[in-house]
């Protein structure tokens, strides 16, 4: 059995954080540069700027063309990509360990020296608009954006990560470039590296790569997003997008715990027990016993100052009301009676097991330590997380279920429905 090495952390005078996890048993290394900026940092005028910028940084730097950026990584069999969330953006690459210096150099180049030319902005604008169209064509994807919009309203957490057709169409080169120069600062960055590496060597490579264009010539301290509670006004209870789909896609959710809440482990176990797998309560009730849906799942989501727990089901539109009623009955029962010892132990085992199995490669380890550092300002030990999950007991689950599953629900629907009225009626019943 391989020994898990501790995560090592270095903070540079500029506020840049470097975290590494050494995994000597692999021949790969993964690097991720995490930026403390996402769609919740945007004003309505630049909605979608974080994601648009993520695309644009691949279009060329002062040292490399777009083709050189991708071909350098692909020439050694590596992979490189990026993603944007509501609270952070991540650029990452995974390569053979001997190619790590090159990977660090390439990914750092995007951060320090991207050109963001007007021509590239216009070309990539079309790509992002296509991405929005693709999301709109996928109702199982669209329903999650609709839920956020229904729950949070026209707020930073309610607006879609991709932006809108209008905001992307109107965005100028100068507004995107200013956003880049203002938000991509050392104090807002975490460089996470995992694999067959040595911490000291990684720090030296990162410093060398990021000193270009005087990027590190500033003093700063690491910036952590404050856990200020997000006030959510009571929005409409049902969000409907009428589409001629064969299936009705539904997401039923309510307030959950925020990121800093220690009860998040109990919430994770509750979500798993309700809709985490084929043995979960909702899957059994909706699919196995009644055959009403193919896909049923649940998840708990946490942000700084806010969170939700929600349940997805895709079913025949004529069965939508029945499925919602079953979800409501199951949640009401769990809120009053809690869950059996067997259900909770099974859910704990599932959460622990999936966490361990998800850490089998350098890329997923890099993601864990990078995400932990960017959102919490520290990396919680792996064994510590497993112990926190193991400590969850039936009383914890019952308490959190009775507090949150009884809160006012929000429902998002994409399907061939003319009005929200009958669904609003079910939610009030």
Brief account:
The chain has helices at residues 49-56, 66-74, 100-113, 118-136, 139-152, 165-170, 173-183, 199-210, 264-275, 281-288, 320-337, 341-357, 362-376, 382-390, 394-404, 421-428, and strands spanning 7-11, 17-22, 28-35, 79-84, 89-96, 189-195, 238-242, 248-255, 293-303, 306-315, 410-415.
Outline the structure in words.
A hairpin with a 5-residue loop joins β1 and β2 (17-22). α1 (49-56) crosses α7, α3 (100-113) runs parallel beside α8 (199-210) and α10 (281-288) packs antiparallel against α11. The protein has 16 helices and 11 strands. It folds into 2 domains: 7-214, Cytochrome Bc1 Complex, Chain A, domain 1 (2-Layer Sandwich), CATH 3.30.830; 238-428, 2-Layer Sandwich (Cytochrome Bc1 Complex, Chain A, domain 1). The longest helix is centred in the N-terminal third of the chain and has 19 residues, at 118-136. 45% of the residues lie in helices and 19% in strands. It has 429 residues and is α+β, with helices and mostly antiparallel strands.
């Amino acid at each position: 059995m391989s020994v898990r090495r501790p995560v090592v952390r270095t903070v540079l005078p500029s506020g840049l954080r470097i975290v590494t996890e050494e995994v000597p048993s692999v021949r790969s290394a993964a690097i991720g540069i995490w930026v403390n900026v996402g769609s919740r940092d945007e004003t309505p005028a630049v909605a979608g700027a974080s994601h648009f910028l993520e695309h644009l940084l691949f279009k060329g730097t002062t040292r490399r063309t777009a083709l050189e950026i991708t071909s350098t990584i692909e020439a050694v069999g590596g992979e490189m990509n990026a993603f944007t969330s509501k609270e952070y953006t991540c650029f990452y690459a995974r390569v053979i360990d001997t190619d790590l210096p090159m990977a660090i150099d390439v990914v750092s180049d995007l951060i320090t020296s991207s050109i963001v030319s007007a021509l590239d902005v216009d070309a990539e604008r079309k790509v992002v608009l296509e991405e929005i169209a693709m999301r709109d064509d996928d109702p199982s994807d669209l329903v999650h954006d609709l839920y956020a919009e229904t729950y949070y309203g026209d707020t930073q957490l309610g607006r879609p990560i991709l932006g809108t057709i209008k905001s992307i169409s109107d965005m100028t080169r100068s507004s995107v470039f200013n956003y880049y120069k203002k938000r991509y600062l050392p104090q807002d960055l975490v460089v996470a590296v995992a694999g067959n590496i040595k911490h000291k060597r990684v720090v030296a490579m990162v410093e060398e790569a990021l000193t270009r264009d005087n990027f590190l010539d500033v003093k700063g301290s690491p910036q952590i997003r404050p856990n200020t509670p997000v006030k959510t006004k009571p929005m409409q209870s049902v969000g409907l997008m009428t589409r001629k789909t064969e299936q009705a896609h539904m997401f039923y959710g309510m307030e959950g715990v925020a990121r800093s809440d220690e009860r998040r482990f109990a919430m994770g176990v509750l979500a798993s027990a309700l809709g985490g797998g084929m043995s979960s309560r909702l899957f059994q009730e909706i699919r196995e016993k009644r055959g009403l849906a193919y896909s049923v799942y649940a998840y708990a989501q946490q942000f700084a100052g806010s969170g939700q727990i929600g349940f997805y089901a895709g079913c025949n539109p004529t069965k939508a009301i029945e499925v919602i009623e079953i979800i409501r009955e199951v949640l009401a029962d769990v809120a009053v009676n809690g869950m059996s010892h067997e259900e909770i132990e099974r859910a704990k085992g599932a959460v622990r097991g999936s966490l361990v199995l998800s850490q089998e490669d350098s890329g997923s380890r890099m993601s864990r330590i990078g995400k932990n550092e960017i959102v919490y300002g520290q990396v919680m030990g792996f064994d510590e997380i497993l112990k926190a999950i193991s400590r969850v007991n039936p009383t914890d689950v019952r308490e959190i279920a009775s507090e949150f599953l009884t809160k006012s629900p929000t429902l998002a629907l994409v399907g061939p429905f003319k009005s929200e009225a009958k669904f609003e009626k079910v939610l009030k019943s």
